[in-house]
Amino acid sequence: VKAQRFSGSRQMAEYVTAQQPDIILIHFYLRWMYEWIVSLPCPVIVWGHGYEAMSWWRRKYHLGMNKPDLGYILENRKQLRSYKDLIRYSNNTGKVKFVFVSQWLKAANSSDTGITPHFFEIFPNPVENRIFNIPAAAGRRKSILAIRSFHHPKKYSVDLLRDAILVLSKRKIFSELTIKIYGDGAYFEEMTEGLK
Question: Which of 63, 64, 119, 155 sits between 20 and 30 A of 143, alpha carbons compared?
Answer without folding.
Answer: 155
